[in-house]
């Protein structure tokens, strides 16, 4: 019997729904044992969020400072799993604090060391450089990344900012102001994600993951959008400056976090459209110089 462990953290329940869909083909097959580990914080984050707490989480998230977690069930710690399905969300272009805290724990090392891992992210749309940080964290745990699925909100970037803020600050997945589309990963996409489970299961059965990522991508597991990756990269540079500034001035933290909030709003609604237009004009040149190469890289593992 092959043993599979699903690891996840979720505030809204969206990632659990995705995890359960992907796990379906394993549950329906007697040849597999499937266990869940829900990452739980000692002091959990609020959901719904309020504005102050939401932005105040930024520096520690971006600097990947771990916080205390509740212990892992000893049965899980003593099981030798054949595959880990690792579900995570992105906070500030970085794996969320609960995910980062788990991956920096001794327990994670015990579970992940020497194991194949498939990462599954459920984010708004900016996951690419968070996945790079995941690669580092998995390497530190001596795990081997064999697959990646990145599920996102596929609506326009400026619209999905409005709809996600409405969702995260109300705690309810609804049409913002009654006119905007629903936030988060589309329900149809969540419900059809058992197709990824089927693909992963067949490779696990054969004991070989070669070719699996290509098949996942061919089935829609990773959409590459150059503009988003480009914003993600620029955002990481600016977030580095802001997080250093906030953490090195604890007495002015409140003021600096407020300024950071205004910076983020300006960056999304003023700077990013201008950069997008420039990149659209240069698109053919950028395709030759880097887009083609980046697409291959970010759709791989
Ligand atoms: C504090 C915070 C920061 C976030 N930052 C990002 C981000 O940088 N990029 C992104 O695509 N999504 C971002 N999101 C959205 C999350 O990745 C995720 O889709 C959403 O919080 C739902 O996750 P859940 O499974 O915990 O409910 C952020 C969410 C929170 C709460």
UniProtKB/TrEMBL annotation:
Annotated transmembrane regions: 262-289
Keyword Membrane: yes
Keyword Transmembrane: yes
Protein name as annotated: Dialkylresorcinol condensing enzyme DarA
Natural source organism: Sphingobacterium hungaricum
InterPro entries on file: Flavoprotein-like_sf (IPR029039)
Superkingdom of the organism of origin: Bacteria
Keywords, alphabetical: Membrane, Transmembrane, Transmembrane helix
């Amino acid at each position: 019997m092959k043993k599979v462990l699903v690891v996840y953290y979720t505030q809204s329940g969206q990632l659990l729904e995705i995890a359960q869909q992907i796990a379906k083909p394993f549950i329906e097959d007697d040849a597999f044992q499937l266990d869940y580990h829900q990452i739980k914080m000692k002091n959990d984050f609020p959901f719904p969020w309020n504005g102050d707490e939401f932005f105040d989480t930024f520096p520690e998230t971006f600097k990947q400072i771990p916080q205390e977690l509740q212990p892992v069930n000893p049965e899980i710690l003593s099981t030798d799993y054949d595959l880990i399905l690792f579900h995570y969300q992105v906070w500030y272009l970085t794996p969320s604090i609960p995910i980062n805290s788990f991956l920096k724990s001794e327990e994670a090392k015990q579970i992940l060391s020497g194991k194949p891992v498939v990462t599954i992210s459920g984010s708004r749309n900016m996951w690419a450089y968070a996945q790079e940080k995941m690669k580092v964290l998995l390497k530190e745990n001596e795990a081997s990344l064999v697959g990646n699925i990145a599920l996102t909100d596929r609506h326009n970037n400026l619209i999905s900012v409005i709809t996600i803020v409405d969702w995260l600050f109300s705690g309810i997945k609804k049409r913002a102001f009654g006119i905007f589309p629903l936030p988060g990963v589309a329900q149809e996409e969540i419900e059809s994600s058992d197709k990824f489970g089927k693909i992963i299961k067949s490779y696990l059965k054969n004991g070989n993951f070669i070719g699996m990522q290509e098949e996942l991508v061919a089935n829609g597991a990773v959409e590459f959008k150059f503009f988003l990756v480009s914003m993600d990269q620029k955002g990481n540079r600016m977030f580095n400056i802001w997080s250093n500034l906030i953490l090195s001035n604890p007495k002015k933290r409140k003021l600096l976090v407020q300024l950071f909030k205004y910076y983020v709003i300006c960056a999304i609604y003023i700077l990013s459209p201008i950069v997008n237009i420039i990149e659209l004009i240069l698109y053919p040149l950028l395709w030759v110089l880097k887009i083609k190469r980046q697409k291959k890289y970010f759709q791989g593992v």
